[in-house]
Amino acid sequence: MSDPLDALEENIATLRRAIRDAATAGDSIRLDELRARLRRAERAWSALVDTDDPSTAPATAERMDPPSSAPVSRGAMLPAREHAHRALMLLQTPAAPKLIVNVHEAFFPGELSASKMSSLRRDEERSYRAAPGARPYYLCPALTYDLLSPARALVTISTWRLEQRIIGPLSPRVDFLTGAIRIAEAIRGSIDSPDTEASPTAWRLLWRFAVNIPGATSTKPAADVGTTDPNQVIDAARAELDVHADTDHATRAESARRARKQLSDVQQLFGASLRDVRHRQAEA
Amino acid sequence: MIATPDQRLDALRGPAPRMHHNARTLAALENNPRCMLRAVLDASGSDKAAIAAHTGYQAPFGQSSFALARGNVFETMVKANGCAELLRVLRETLQLTLPEVGYQDLNDVGGDGRAESRHARTTHLLTAAARGHGSDTLYDHPMLRLVVGGHPVFLEPDLVAFRVDDRFHVVEIKSFPIVDDQAAPAQVRAATTHACAYIIALRAMLAASGIGPESVSDTIVLIAPKDFTNRPTGAFVDARKQVATLTRQLERIQRIGDLVELLPEGLTFDLAADDTGRPQRPAQELAEALDQVPATYYPECLNHCEMAFYCRSRARADGSLDVLGSAVREQLGGVDTVTMALGLARGTLTPNDDQVEMAVALRHAARLRVELHNSPGAAGAAS
Ligand code: SF4
Fold it and tell me: Highest taxon of the source (chain B) (predicted)?
């Protein structure tokens, strides 16, 4: 198989060997140059392997374009946590950092990277503990429905109701369908308004959601990114949502009740540690 | 005093900590059950990778961090956004119904990632599901446990899906492509061999609660990229035969004592590591120790066993036909080494009764080859 990844991997291996040789020979000028080339190759590799666009051609070229089409508004200068907040407000569901970055890229100007997201999450709890309530909102983890501990890699906003921030067994699917509806609505909104236009990235995001919802894409063979219909996505997502929504809501509401009774304010935001869980179980 | 098998196994390993069985060693067991060297190394908990490296034959796999990263990225993508891609594929292949989306994350238990805690929770949830309590379908990275030769092994499938005909299905997520509904057989086999161990472990876990083996399907669901895209597709792999083989081998593993008795007194694979963990034992001496135990090398070892490069070079040095693979080996039944085959073909060796027919065939082949070489039109082919 000779895909671009294989070629890059070979290239990286060759560069590493060359670096070793240059280091042995003490050739520092060549070493610097080789290191720079290695970094570039490694970046290209990560970009390629990271592209979760399910279509054949990796969309690296497009991603490297500066977001020049979007007017550089004040929004571009916002700190990362505000970017994340905006993306989450659009989705209205707990979301993984990667999805937050995708939504941000699709709808908002400015830069937000996955690595920024993870350092952000660490900062939030520290800042809350130092001065509770000093900020209008905090980015905090979703909570698991049974242990009320932080859910792995899902971010929420502190101002949401607990029900919205709890993850039951059906919630990942429910949140996915809800997210699809919200993204479709945002795109529909920009179609309706005369002075905005949904970006190609936004359309592609919608398409990626749509292909995994029964009945959300046209069955015509030529159906692809460009032919996704936001209204059809909304209808299809609602139809499946109807199947899960009641059960999911009941689980979340029950856990939220328990959380309000058993957890402190900080815990309600950032989750109970395992020690708290054990303690509660021992008491029960 | 006569040493017990366990004491002898400890002596074979030396003072280094015991290596436990894992999905890979179980796969090697299933693929080459008769190899005594592998059996003894695994049973003694010796570090095969370190031993192979010290003899100068580093294991043929486990080095490519690229492959690992690619696999992880693909698995993450398949499971992203509430397992959106995975659900689509499972709905297509397993005919999951719309309500079957319940997801349980078993990667940790409230932030506790220890195998024991995860195993306890896995057991709790899966047993309840098998009994009809609970309505969940996707169990992400459950932690299974299997006792092999008296020692527990923790095993972690990518995913277990439930309620397809009320049975559990092991799901393996792999980043090698399925092109035109076909994947490379060697890779499929490697993936399913691991999955067999999961099936057996899952059955053992449920059996402890009196639930029969039919609750776990023998069919593995393989999820892999479709053609050369990044989009996953699914395929069924029938693992009945492999599961049966491995089950049988696991039952036999207890008889390791009989094997160990055949080994010379005082044999050890101890690397004599110093404080920094660096092996101090002369490589030559280690190789001599390894050579005292018969190995049955064949090319598939390259996919499963850390010792493969070492054993291949040893088999080549012995002129063993095994290095040429099972097809050649079967065709040359009764002939054991390359030297013997060449001798029979050239007529320098007299065949015994079993070898008469084969010798005729070999001589015929040798004659044809000479004729081809000498015919004028074959200049290109002869180069
Ligand atoms: S590689 Fe060597 S030790 Fe491993 S199974 Fe094959 S023959 Fe046995």
Answer: Bacteria
Helix orientation angle between B338-346 and B356-374, rounded to the nearest 10 degrees: 70
Mean pLDDT of the B349-368 span: 75
Residue A170 touches chain B, beta carbons under 8 Å: yes
Roughly how many angstroms between the first and final C-alpha of chain A, as a whole number? 58
pTM: 0.75
**Could you report how far apart the first and last alpha carbons of chain B are, in Å?**
65
Tell me which of B25, B34, B36, B37 to substitute to probe ligand 1's pocket, judged by most ligand atoms within 8 Å of the beta carbon.
B37
Give the bridge partners for B224, in sequence order: B233
Residue B377, classified by CB atoms within 10 Å of its CB into exposed (0-12), middle (13-18) or buried (19+), is: exposed
B111–chain A Cβ distance below 8 A for any pair: yes
Q: What is the ipTM of this complex?
A: 0.73
In whole angstroms, give the CA distance from residue B207 to residue A143.
33
Q: Please write the tens of the pLDDT for every residue from B271-315.
A: 998 888 889 999 999 999 999 998 888 888 887 889 999 998 888
In whole angstroms, give the CA distance from residue B10 to residue B260: 11
B163 Ramachandran zone, left/alpha/beta (phi>0; psi -120 to 50):
left
Indicate the residue type of A201.
Answer: T
**Residue A72: what pLDDT?**
39
Out of A112-121, A169-178, B360-369, the most confident range is A169-178
pLDDT at A144 over 90: yes
* Three-state secondary structure readout of B84-117: HHHHHHHHHHCCCCCCCCCEEECCCECCECCHHH
Higher pLDDT among residues B142 and A152, named by residue:
B142
- C-alpha dihedral, A170 to A173 to A176 to A177, nearest 10°: -100
Helix (H) or strand (E) holding B129: helix B115-130
φ, ψ of residue B84 in degrees (nearest 5)? -55, -50
